[in-house]
Amino acid sequence: MALSSEQRLLISTARAFVEKELIPLEKEVETADRLSDEVARSITQKAKEYGLYAANIPEKFGGGGLSALDNTMIEEEFGRTSDILVRRALGGVYEMLLELSEEQKARWLFPSVEGDRVAAVGFTEPGGGSDAAGIKTRARKVGSGWRLSGQKCFISDGAYADYFIVTAVTDPDAGAKGISLFLVDKGMPGFTVSGNQPMMGSRGTSHVDLYFDNVELEPIHLIGKEGGGLKLMLGSMGRIRIMHVGARSVGKATRLFELMVGYAQERTQFEQPIGNYQLMQQMLADSAVEIEATRLLVRQAAEDLDNGIDARDRIALLKVYASEMLGRVADRAVQVFGGMGYSKDHIVEKIYRDARLYRIIDGTSEVHRAVVGRNLVAKGPGLVDPLR
After folding, report:
1. Contact present, 114 and 103 (Cβ < 8 Å)
2. Global confidence as pTM
3. Phi, psi values for residue 156, rounded to 5°
4. Domain with CATH 1.10.540.10 in the chain
5. Would you say 170 and 149 are in contact if contact means Cβ atoms under 8 Å apart?
6. What is the pLDDT of residue 284?
């Protein structure tokens, strides 16, 4: 795919920001398992100066107004570094907020685009996992509003966020059409943010539990229409899977690949560079093939979104391939570096841990394989037809 001059500048700008402003902070985040509020605010401000913050949001709402395709190019560069640093730099302003009313936008969307407010999504529940429709959190109708009760878990960035986009059942008899989306501000009576679950990777990013005990919600807290929450959520999740999993997987794998090639050229065994050995060359070649194939798949899925094409099947396919590609490249990187790659002092070990999560978040590989397989049986082989 040929890049325009504007796209080349976009990639160069994002790459320079990551290398200058974020990568130097990685060791501090790994050691402390947190990012100070002062540093977080500094990252956000610098990203705004670079024109990278909220680049996915249309210009009329104060964002960068970039296409899905152009956003993948930014996300790929940011995928090279730690999750928490990416969150502070890009903002995580979710597209589902574009569905807000004007009054809601003034309260939640516009401050988020400015970097003054931070959102997190509260979808996952104990026992729920990848079953987005199998939630237990309830919002019971009371007058013109609702009372929210239930629990969410593993909520990424929940300690830093000051409001949450939360799924809740408003009509237990309506199945998937009985789920609604709500905006819940931290500090509301009955709402508690608790704990921080330590994780294998993604150090510095908090993963908290949310508890709702009859939290009183007004009509302004409802996103879109009552019962339309699952559709809104799944619509946004497609973009998230392309950007946060697909593009960032390519970025992480590319950083590992560059390290692998450099080490294979420099490291000697038996009086010659290890890159001279065919088995080493095979690991490098396989990684190059898979990274480039994934990059093309990511960009095709993004182009589908930009052209208004239903990309759900392609995104499910991408989610599986990208996350598992990253796992394979990370494993090869550890093997290439040997004992050094297993050392906690080396970046390869960090990325290896971070990579493992990608096969779980935003729907497991097994769930997405089932989606692709079921649709192929129901619809035929059109997913791989160039004329589809």
Report:
1. no
2. 0.95
3. -65, 135
4. 5-114
5. no
6. 98
What pLDDT is attached to residue 387? 75
For the beta carbon of residue 9, count every other beta carbon within 10 angstroms: 11
Q: Is 277 helix (H, G, I), strand (E, B) or coil?
A: coil
pLDDT score at 2: 87
Q: Which residues pair with 179 in a beta bridge?
A: 169
pLDDT of residue 131: 63
Q: What's 206-229 look like in SS3?
A: CEEEEEEEEEEECHHHEECCCCCH
Q: Which residues of the chain have pLDDT under 50?
A: none
* Helices and strands: H and E segment counts in the chain: 13, 10
**CATH match for 5-114 among 3.30.450.20, 1.10.540.10, 2.60.40.60, 3.10.129.10:** 1.10.540.10
119-227 architecture in CATH?
A: Beta Barrel (2.40)
Express each pLDDT in 171-219 by its tens digit.
Answer: 999 998 999 999 999 999 999 999 899 999 999 999 999 999 999 999 9
Which residues in the chain are classed under CATH 1.20.140.10?
Answer: 231-384
Distance CA 82, CA 89 (A): 11
pLDDT at 46: 98
Q: Bridge partners of 142?
A: 145
Q: How would you label 244-262 residue by residue, b for 16+ Cβ within 10 Å and e otherwise? A: bbbbbbbbbbbbbbebbee
| 231-384: in CATH 3.30.465.10 | no
For 323, phi and psi rounded to 5 degrees? -65, -40
Q: What values do phi and psi take at 203, rounded to 5?
A: -65, 145
Query: Nearest CA to 78 among 105, 49, 113, 43?
Result: 43
Helix axes 83-90, 37-50, angle to 10 degrees: 50
Q: What's the pLDDT at 288?
A: 98
Tokens 């050392």 locate to 343
Contact assessment for residue 62 and residue 54, using Cβ atoms and an 8 Å cutoff = yes
DSSP 31-84: HHSS--HHHHHHHHHHHHHHT-TTTTS-GGGTS----HHHHHHHHHHHTTS-HH
Q: How would you classify the pairing of strands 179-185 and 268-269? A: unpaired
Write down the pLDDT at residue 129.
61
Residue intervals of the chain classified under CATH 2.40.110.10 are 119-227
